[in-house]
Amino acid sequence: MKRCLLPCIIGLFALILSVLTTESVHYIRERHSHEVLTRISDLPASLLKASVLEFHGVSADLLLLKTFTWVGMKIGVGADLTREEWKQLAGIIDRITDLDRRFWDPYLFAEMMLTWQGGMVEEANRLLIKASEANPDDYRPLYFLGFNEFYFRKDAARAAPFLRQAALKPGAPGFLKGLAARFSLYGRQTLAGIIFLKGLIKQTTDEKTKKYLQKRLETLEIINMLENAVTSYKEKFGHSPKTIHDLVTDEIIQYVPKDPYGGEFILLKNGSVYTTSGLINHDRSRNTKERPGNLSSK
Amino acid sequence: MRNSIAIAIFTLREGLKQRIIIGLSLAALIMLTSGVMISGFFMRDISKIVVDLALSVASAGGLMVPFFVGINMLAGDIEKRTIFTIMAQPVSRWHYVIGKYIGLSILTLIVILFLASLGLASIWVGKLMYGPVFFKKFSMKSYLVAVFFNYWGTNVLLSLVVMWSSITTSSFLSFLLTLASYLIGNTLDDIVSFVNTNAPNNPMEETIQTAVIYLQYAVPNLSAFDLKLPVAHGIATSVEEAAVLVSYGAACITFILMISILTFNRRNIA
User: Does A106 reside within a domain?
Assistant: First the structure.
């Protein structure tokens, strides 16, 4: 009996250890936590607020953390969110900001993800309007609203009033006044993108996120340089270049820089420069490495 | 009054003997430490996260007194017949009720102040870790005001514990009624707004709507004392608001304790 006891204990211990370290538990947890999270967007706001009792702030924090994890996990494995998931994400952020209307991080997250990655400018704008109503002294929601109108909707006329309002808020950076005025006159989307990214990089301390944004900034700066070269070409020769390589042939620039995303720069008929990469990495394996780690920055 | 004070001191000693502070401080330390770490995952509102958690821990810890110590000491006294030891002394019943209430209130104050101090320490650590730039909005004065109103709201709940323990015969029933009062008191505002919204996919019966509207005046509005969110965002409470809340809380406590004394005086505890 005693002889059997030790192997039995070791066997039992090994069995417990194998059960405790199994990956399946994590998969089950991941799947269910995602299901719970996405269903929150279906709840009426007042019902959600009632269900968290007096702990609105902490519940909003926890929900946002879970949202970061969910989206981060998706991006981490190189999987894009489906159309339905993007809608759910917008809904979750709406509910989080119902719990705490002044909480800026979910709005910023929506601005970073819904517009750039999800193509949901309207949803992002709706959330930013909610943010500007909740924080009437904050310039940031209006600044991002202006940016979205100009950069994504290509409507400088609609962007300028937002930027003018933003520039008048306490603590607004000085450049906003000049930017608001310039936006009313010019229609350079690339320039707006560069200014936006520079501002975002300044706010970011997470190295991975910074690197991710720097790369985008670098590409936009090349596009801006090429667009300026096209303008110079027109002034010199009286007509637009046929291809981007004409800029090199006719000695406006020495060479066409490489697209950091692996695409090729092309000249559109309206004279603006575009890249075939669409600011998305062509190489999938490289892509996953260069996305921001936990989507958090400071 | 001297009798009430003696009972209050006895209640406080009994409460402290339950070592609630040791358990709570351990739980609070774990939560606050993880909170400071987790706040680093957020982008801009780091101070909001840390202050949210600090005040929530103080609030949740404060709730332990009415729900666990309070009910155990009041309803349990009657259930276990230990009340006869006190009643054998020259002590009137209202002295007993007031004394128990004051004792539990002081215990709540100690617990909330202790947890709020731990919360302040976590804010200080957060400042050191992430830099004072993220804590520009934090105001010590507002934090202390929120802690005070947290205590004041818990006092209203304590008076409800005293009332339900005076009316009911078992500690379990007293717990259920206190829990119901807490849930209703904290969700009433949101339920009223939900009922008033009357969304097309959520048609409400008129009787339910009327019941909810009357209920908001019958049950103390505990969510009014919750200032965690404004303080986390650096918004100060005005003197007028503070005065209204202090008066509202005092009126609730006095009224509920009066009912408790009246009920307890008429009750047959034999």
Answer: no
> For residue A272, what are the domain limits?
209-290
Q: What is the pLDDT of residues B89-120, one digit of tens each?
A: 788 889 999 999 999 999 999 999 999 999 99
Give the pLDDT confidence of A112-150 residue by residue, as tens digits.
999 988 889 999 999 999 999 999 999 999 999 999 998
Judge: B43–A108 Cβ closer than 8 Å, yes or no.
Answer: yes
Q: What ipTM, to 2 d.p.?
A: 0.87
Q: How many domains, chain A? A: 1
**Is position A148 within any domain?**
no
Is A227 within a domain?
Answer: yes
Q: Is residue A188 part of a domain?
A: no
DSSP-derived secondary structure letter, B223: G
Report how far apart, in Å, the C-alpha atoms of A32 and of each of A88, A243, B72 are: 15, 52, 37
- pTM tops 0.90: no
Measured between beta carbons, the chain B residues lying within 8 angstroms of A113 are: none
CB-nearest to B43 from A47, A51, A298 is: A298
Q: Is A224 in CB contact (< 8 Å) with chain B?
A: no
Residue among B231, B29, B232 at smallest CA distance from A61: B232
Give the best residue of A49, A54, A139 to mutate against chain B (max B CB count within 10 A).
A54
Cβ neighbors of B270 (< 8 A, separation 6 or more) are none
Query: Which segment of A117-126, A137-146, B75-84, B151-160 scores lowest on mean pLDDT?
Result: B75-84
